Q: What sequence folds into this?
């Protein structure tokens, strides 16, 4: 997945792979919301 994201960014911009940083940050469902509703409230 990280390679796919990196390649997509490079294909759509002039960035080289060395300048692309992909950060994966797993969050608890009660630490983020979509449309103003916590994800923990929709599960």
A:
């Amino acid at each position: 997945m990280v390679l796919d994201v990196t390649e997509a960014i490079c294909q759509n911009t002039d960035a080289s792979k060395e300048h692309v940083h992909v950060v994966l940050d797993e969050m608890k469902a009660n630490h983020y919301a979509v449309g103003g509703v916590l994800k923990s409230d929709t599960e």
In short: The chain has one domain: 2-41. Residues 4 and 10 are 10 Å apart (CA to CA). The mean pLDDT is 95. The radius of gyration is 15 Å.
